Task: inverse folding
């Protein structure tokens, strides 16, 4: 869980620096929605993309 959240946070930060923040957030949300994860992991990933 730690590796997934930190990895997605770095990826979100890099994509946000390349393109606008809102499209990056929408792409990340769609990626999280497509994952088959537990509720706790999903919440951690959402908080991480918000911070990224």
Result:
């Amino acid at each position: 869980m730690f590796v997934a959240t930190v990895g997605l946070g770095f990826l979100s930060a890099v994509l946000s620096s390349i393109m606008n923040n809102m499209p990056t957030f929408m792409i990340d949300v769609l990626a999280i929605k497509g994952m088959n994860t537990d509720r706790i992991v999903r919440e951690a990933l959402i908080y991480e993309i918000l911070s990224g």
